Amino acid sequence: MMFVEFTGMVGAGKSTLALALKKLLQDNNFEALSLGEAIVNQMERSLLGRLVYSIAPVAWRTRVLYKVYSLGVEPLCRVHFAYENPRLVWKVCASQFHRQIPLRHRQAILSLFFKIAGGYQFLRHRLEPNQVVILEEGLIHRAVNLYAWEPKQIDPALLMTYFSLLPALDLVVLVRAPFDICMERAEFRGLPSRLHGKDESTVDRFMNHSAQIIGLASEFLASTDRPVVEVDNGGQLEEGIANLCKGLESLLFLVTKPDTGSPDQPSWEMA
């Protein structure tokens, strides 16, 4: 089992490469799942899930099952995560108390953090050996939402403390692209919902702060022994996917099988 987290600038190509990785893993007999898919998968196997499936209409089963998780299971998992990571949770919550942004915005930011944390806590001991959970924006990337909105300068010490307190996932994919290309892609496809309605100076500040935070995340990861794949995605999609494959093949727990696959379709197994 594995947790793979993507992080990078808005417009760097995290979502696109996450989908590409999901397909590559599925083609090589891994069960690659998004966070939501993995949660539903595990809920279906539970006694509670079987009960829901026995009484809910077929068309509503997945929706009802996820609602049961959101209302009953996830809150308990959030509490469990806080119990196991008290310093991290305190730092995150305390950092939001006096921010110069609306209360509802702070609540949304904290909700996103705890949604990922609760999902991680729920799945960490439940995944099957061949299952891989792909987080397009995981706990490391939450730092962007937590701290990039500040009107003042980014606090590197605060960010490094945050990163150091996070539970170590199995793999982080750091997607890189030049700042101007990220801006161009973001504007072309439409800015994320959190930037809708914001003035140009706010958008520029958020993007610049995001770049600083991703840079600090890269520095932190380089100083640890956590498995990291850095992917240059500043060119065409095919080049980014090829760079991702090369990075994965270089890791000890993903090795190319010598007698299967082809140069265009690598086959992997966990070492």
What does this structure look like?
The protein has helices at 14-27, 35-45, 47-55, 61-84, 86-96, 103-123, 142-147, 156-165, 179-189, 200-222, 237-249, and strands at residues 2-8, 31-34, 131-135, 171-176, 228-232, 255-256, 268-269. By secondary structure, it is an alpha/beta fold. It has a single domain, classed as Rossmann fold, CATH 3.40.50. Helix 2 (35-45) packs across helix 6. Mean pLDDT is 85; it is low at 255-266.
List the helices and strands and how they pair.
Blueprint (H helix, E strand, L loop, with lengths): L1 E7 L5 H14 L3 E4 H11 L1 H9 L5 H24 L1 H11 L6 H21 L7 E5 L6 H6 L8 H10 L5 E6 L2 H11 L10 H23 L5 E5 L4 H13 L5 E2 L11 E2 L2
Parallel strand pairs: 1-3, 1-4, 2-3, 4-5
Antiparallel strand pairs: 6-7
Helix pairs in contact: 1-11, 2-3, 2-4, 2-6, 4-5, 4-6, 8-10
